[in-house]
Write a structure and sequence with these properties.
The structure is a homodimer of 403-residue chains.
Chain A lengths: L2 E6 L7 H16 L3 E6 L5 H12 L5 H25 L4 E3 L7 E4 L6 E5 L2 H8 L3 E5 L2 E3 L5 E3 L4 H12 L4 E6 L20 E3 H9 L7 H9 L4 E5 L7 E4 L12 E17 L4 H11 L4 E8 L5 E9 L3 H9 L8 E14 L9 H11 L4 E7 L2 E7 L3 H11 L4
Helix pairs in contact in A: 1-3, 2-3, 5-7, 6-7, 10-11
Chain lengths: 403, 403
């Protein structure tokens, strides 16, 4: 007998048929003698629908009330799932976060799970019941409803795995698992059987939407292995776990890419202490997210060139903010709003020299111009022209033996 | 300064525009210095939508989970209303039933409000805040979500008026008030300015859908005056209150009718103690609602004729149940599945003789055949052929001076 958390994402509970299908998966796991806690997201599209209702009232809709509003989405799915399980002959009950309670702290729309009362649910599990819990929410000590950010049902699942000390945490989603690159665009992409938390974090932040990053971080801190698998196929999924559990036969685990990027270079910025802060502080205040930042020294030694990337839809706002910034002086501003970022990620890189060189050589062989480079211990990212994106991903996927 | 409950029904909060309009009504009442508790229904159509989701899983969907599911409808409206008020500059907060709490007892889908904790909400009202509360629900002592039956938001409003001892209870709806008969069918129908609880109950049970009957009953028991008024016009509505407050210049207050009825007569039933129970018990077990029951003695004195009416869509089931009932014997079974019930209602009847005669004469003058009669202190109902419905209502409306 094992104690398990099974989490079903929005598309996995996106219709009555899918909820009933997910209930069958739960029923099967339960019939094997396991103790099961189910965590559900809102039906796909529901959260956006509720946000658009509040937006129609005001773009600055009260945050406390927005949390009350949004939390209803998972409430609906929880009751439907518990009802579907009951109808399928499985003893089951939904538990709203205030009924458990799941205690959260922090501000509305961005709270953290602090603690979960395990007593009543554990008693129910011992009686053979399946507990169904809405993801994405909790209650504050003062009794308000809080939500924990988009994709927060993953964080709920990991928190439950941690606090209930379950044997596994299984994330059911609409993909088979984590892939070496986007399988929709690169048909030779391969499903990864095992991946480390760190690699998963790099891939998530680079656009692989399999799991919410902060949930992966929590799992990493508490060493909770996660299984990502498809609700719709019986295929083995991807296990996300500690690096030590993984046998690295390949240097690179995956190739990720993000499009809709833009690159800006300030040439000949007068170099002085605090210049980076002077450039980036006004951008942050305007809600512009900076991705890569690269600084080089100009030949004259007194000025510096600063390159950074942003999302394309922030492009105009960024140029306006830079041009109206009285605190900074620069000779020239280069920009390119049609770039993409390609990253190779792999825990095996740390111990393998020459990956960087191999990557640059491969791109050169394809006549792909590298516009900027940024590296971390387990990742190398380059900015290239957007037109070259797929060509670059395919080439890197091949030369790092991922096909 | 007055303390008021304002309740908005489903059509009054049926869209974002309508919620914002209702919020303006609340804002105006609040700006006059009143303490306001708002009770909201689910957006119109929402409850049916949720029920159809549960029905798709199972027609016997778990009742506990159905309550969790349905209660989300009013949760959504409460948060949108509180958010709309905040956006309109009114201090406001939603309170889910477990946050107050509103304690209920009884079974799922059909619970009763037992008690409401007034402390925190009263403190909030004193600080000038508007409390927004979802109708139709509460929590049991064991912490489960309960709902209190269709139309239950009226019952919530009346319970709040009672327990918070408010100065008024105002039901905002999509009609101007209570009418002397259906204004959509009989254009001369008049809005009633004041009506007694008893008359309202008779009219409600006869199809006037202005307010839920059990809410009117509770208001009657605790002598809580209710104002019914339109969310969409500024017209004065109808006050429902104690008979003593009403000056009866008219004998009859209103003429109600229900269609889709069917009449069944068992002729020559062997009369013995318990025969009525033997007939009606199996019908009740089959979820068939019996409306009027009339029993007469046959000429031979040993048998009796029993006539009763039911809803037309129970007609076939009723015949089947009667024909397979081994406990009863009868000579013949008459039936007519195209009848309607016309009722004249008026507290003034009690002290005015001759109303019955006047009614029967008027129908005879129109060549309308009376198939069955049933009377109470403040009501006379007759069953007639459905084709005669509007002709009968118009005639009675005229002769009782309601035009």
């Amino acid at each position: 007998m094992k104690k398990k958390v099974l989490k079903f994402g929005g598309t996995s509970v996106g219709s009555i048929e899918r909820i009933m299908h997910a209930a069958e998966i739960v029923k099967k796991e339960h019939s094997l003698g396991n103790q099961i806690i189910v965590v559900v997201s809102a039906m796909s599209g529901k959260t956006n629908e509720l946000i658009s209702l509040s937006d129609s009232i005001s773009k600055k809709f009260n945050k406390r009330e927005l949390d009350v509003l949004l939390s209803s989405g998972e409430q609906v799915t929880s009751s439907l799932m518990a009802g579907a399980l009951t109808s399928a002959g499985v003893k089951s009950k939904s538990w709203m976060s205030w009924q458990i309670p799941i205690f959260t702290s922090g501000e509305h729309a961005n709270a953290r799970i602090e603690n979960i009362n395990v007593k009543n649910i554990n008693a129910y599990l011992s009686e053979g019941g399946v507990a169904v819990i809405p993801g994405f929410q909790g209650v504050s000590k003062s009794g308000d409803i809080n939500t924990i950010g988009r994709g927060g049902s993953d964080a709920t699942a990991v928190a439950i795995a941690k606090i209930f000390n379950t044997d596994s945490c299984e994330i059911y989603t609409d993909v088979d698992g984590v892939y070496s690159t986007d399988p929709n665009k690169i048909p030779v992409a391969k499903k990864i059987d095992k991946i480390s938390y760190e690699e998963m974090l790099e891939l998530s932040s680079l656009g692989a939407k399999v799991m919410q990053s902060s949930a992966v971080q929590t799992a990493m801190i508490h060493d909770i292995p996660i299984q990502v698998r498809s609700t719709f196929t019986a295929r083995q999924g991807t296990e996300i776990s500690n690096q030590g559990n993984i046998d690295y036969t390949k240097i690179v685990t995956g190739v990720a890419y993000s499009k809709d990027d833009a690159k800006i270079t300030l040439i000949g910025v007068l170099d002085k202490p605090g210049i980076a802060a002077d450039i980036f502080e006004p951008l942050g205040k305007n809600q512009i997210n900076i991705d890569m930042v690269i600084q080089t020294i100009s030949p004259d030694g007194k000025t510096t060139d600063i390159t950074f990337t942003i999302k394309r839809n922030d492009f105009k706002k960024t140029l306006d903010t830079l041009n109206s910034n009285k605190k900074i002086k620069f000779k020239n501003l280069n920009h390119n709003d049609k770039v993409s970022k390609i990253s190779v990620v792999g825990a095996g890189m740390v111990t393998t020299p020459g990956v960087t060189f191999k990557m640059f050589r491969a791109l050169a062989d394809e006549n792909i111009n590298i516009l900027a480079i940024s590296t971390s211990e387990i990742k190398i990212s380059v900015i290239i022209n957007e037109n070259d994106t797929l060509k670059a991903v395919k080439k890197l996927h091949t030369i790092f033996d991922l096909d």
